[in-house]
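ok so I'm stuck.
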Amino acid sequence: MTEADIERYFVWVVRRAGGQTYKFRSPTQRGVADRIACMPDGKTWFVEIKKPGGRVSPLQHLFAREMAVLRQNYACLWSKEDVDAWLAQ
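replied:
not stuck anymore, here's the structure
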């Protein structure tokens, strides 16, 4: 399973749930999450998508910690099963 496969599945799942996803790239800040998911319950999530066996870079770890300090919703998803579990929470 590739990262692109998981990302496509994530986009499909979010849309099916009534939400919207945005691909995010920051030209000035490396390590930010791949996707922003806006859910119909009003929650916004910063989501990093990784393939099984992939690695989270030090800057991505830093971004995750910053989101925790700011009390933002952040998830790192490694598989379609992770996507399903994330949506079910």
